[in-house]
Amino acid sequence: MAAITMAEMWTTVGSTMASFMFVWTIIRQYCPYEVRQHLEKSMHRLMSFFNPYIHVSIDEFMGTRLNRSEAYAAVEAYLSTNSEKNAKRLKLEMEKDSKKIVLTMDEYQKLTDEFQGAEISWVLHTKSPKPMRNGNNSQPETRYYNLTFHKRYREMIAESYLEHVMKKGKEIRVKNRQRKLYTNGARDKYAWPRQPMWSDVPFEHPARFESVAMEAEKKQEIIEDLLTFSQSKDFYARIGRAWKRGYLLYGPPGTGKSTMIAAMANLLNYDVYDLELTAVENNTELKKLLIEITGKSIIVIEDIDCSLDLTGHRKKKKTEKETEDKNEEEEEKKQTDLKNREGERFSKVTLSGLLNFIDGLWSACGGERIIVFTTNHVEKLDPALIRRGRMDKHIELSYCSFEGFKVLAKNYLLVEAHPLFDMIQQLMGETEITPADVAEALMRKSPREDVEKSLSKLIQALEEAKKEAAAKKAEEESRGKAPAKDDSLLQDKKETEEPQSLDDGAVLL
Ligand SMILES: Nc1ncnc2c1ncn2[C@@H]1O[C@H](COP(=O)(O)OP(=O)(O)OP(=O)(O)O)[C@@H](O)[C@H]1O
Ligand SMILES: [Mg+2]
Predict the structure, then answer these.
(1) Domain AAA+ ATPase, which positions (predicted)?
(2) Of all protein residues, whose CA lies closest to atom 8 belonging to ligand 1?
(3) Mapping DSSP to helix (H, G, I), strand (E, B) and coil, where does residue 272 land?
């Protein structure tokens, strides 16, 4: 008896639903847009009166169709991990500037999520646009996510869950995006229509910290410093400092400064802005460039000592070289004339402009930025430029140590030990060689080249370097001079001892 009643009940429910759907389809097809809207609204009001569930919708576009909503994109990314596992109907999407395809839930699929004991359901809907006066539908449908939860979780969803979705979604988007390498050097300032301040290419440098030749402890310290920085948004806000950090990488050519920048960008998933200071016309342009830099980025100024003339001595050196037999005054006049004629081609960025760029008020916009300077001559830099707070961490990249060599050997030759290692260790203790030279010696020149041959090449390079250093030393001693390296340092020191001012008159070369 009960079974018959149940069957009857289901039949009644089924037929009511079917009739309702039929009526609704007729309404959707034949009723004018305004009537349909009105009916939909009334029905929602009626249902929400009895319904204990709350709905939140997140539209794909904000205002115009040009602005895709950040919130929608974050929800889409957040749900993609859930969709991949649980949805039965999926859609394959690849966003602009994304390097990865994403599987998102298809329309009208329902996905459930759990958060702090609450069950939350998500459905992707479509919405037809308002028809135009002539009745045509020129715009395609738009989509929106509908989030449903019981009203008892209202506060928790508003305060924690939505924030959690946005944060996770943004993280996924950052991970999936195609990172870029930007430069300001390739811009034609006089082109019309105006070119953007930065031009970009996909950033595809493969350097990783694992492959950087360096003492393990020092490397670990740098990695931890970088990771701590990237996770310290709240800390920087609490102490009232802009969320940025400066790194000064210094050392001889070929010791891995540029390689380390690429490894930093890969570790943190950041974009790289390679700032060519000599292509910046003045401080205002520098500020404009700064404004356009987004967060999660590394701003790099390579060879900073060559870009900025603080004392004028390098300019003097150049003048002396060019004028050998001419008198200095005449040459200076010539230089001024040239400057006047090609005035606009000379950068007028000043040291104070650069200091402002690094830690002035404008430098705080965007957040989560790392600024890296590289130089071969740290002693030539103005102390104001590299003081802690501007360049927070000074990292010396020096000649290859035996530990560094072992990293390269493992990388290039896939060996961690070899009878020739002892000899290499001994030679490395006696002479200096850059990691770039070690890497070159270990590079296989043909697929058949074996480990022993590569290591022998390195031994040969080390012996040559040792001989060269000895010959140089002997030559200097015979001339009654101190060793060349110390000599050049002394010379540089003497030159930089001239008072260095931070006035706006110091200009770029
Ligand atoms: N520490 C290192 N670890 C691994 N590879 C290195 C290291 N240093 C140099 N190399 C190798 O040598 C090449 C040159 O290195 P890199 O361009 O990073 O040197 P640099 O210090 O930036 O030199 P410069 O001062 O001339 O700009 C790189 O392609 C890299 O393969
Ligand atoms: Mg370099």
Answers:
(1) 243-401
(2) 256
(3) strand
Residue 131 CA: distances (Å) to CA of 6, 126, 320: 45, 15, 76
**Residue 494 parent element (H or E):** helix 484-496
Identify the weakest region by mean pLDDT among 64-73, 185-194, 401-410.
185-194
- Which structure tokens are listed for 119? 């069950």
Mind listing the pLDDT tens digit for each residue in 115-135? 999 999 999 888 776 666 666
Amino acid present at 214:
M
CB-CB contact of 134 with 104 (8 Å): no
Which is the CATH superfamily of the domain at 183-187+196-310+347-396? P-loop containing nucleotide triphosphate hydrolases (3.40.50.300)
Identify which ligand lies nearest to the alpha carbon of 262.
1
Question: Which is the closest atom of ligand 1 to the Cα of 376?
Answer: 25
Most informative mutation of 258, 376, 428, 443 for ligand 1 (most atoms within 8 A of CB): 258
Report residues near ion ligand 2: CB below 5 Å: 257-258
Query: Residues 6 or more apart from 287 whose CB is under 8 A from it?
Result: 356, 357, 362
Centre of ligand 2 to C-alpha 205, Å, is: 13
Query: What tokens appear for 214 in the block?
Result: 């360096």
CA distance 433 to 473: 16
- Our answer on whether the CB atom of 275 is closer than 6 Å to any ligand 1 atom is no
Q: Rounded CA gap, 76 and 124, in Å?
A: 10
Look up residue 406 and give its two tokens: 């072992």
Question: Given this model, what pLDDT does residue 449 score?
Answer: 74
Band of pLDDT at residue 186, cut at 50, 70 and 90: low
Provide the β-strand partners of residue 142.
127
Q: How far is CA 490 from CA 309, 431, 434, 487, in A?
A: 19, 22, 23, 5
| Ligand nearest to C-alpha 212 | 1
With a 6 Å cutoff on the Cβ, whether 428 touches ligand 1 is: no
Strands (E) in 294-365, as ranges, are 297-301
**DSSP helix/strand/coil, 236:** helix
Q: Is 253 in the pocket of ligand 1 (CB under 6 A)?
A: yes
pLDDT at 165: 94
Q: Is the CB of 213 within 6 Å of ligand 1?
A: yes
Sort 200 into a burial class: Cβ within 10 Å, 0-12 / 13-18 / 19+. middle
Q: Is the CB of 255 under 6 A from ligand 1?
A: yes
Tokens 């997140």 correspond to 58
Is ipTM over 0.95?
A: yes
pLDDT band at 205 (very low <50, low <70, confident <90, very high): very high
Answer with the residue of higher pLDDT: 29 or 501: 29
> Domain locations in the chain?
55-128+141-176, 183-187+196-310+347-396, 405-470
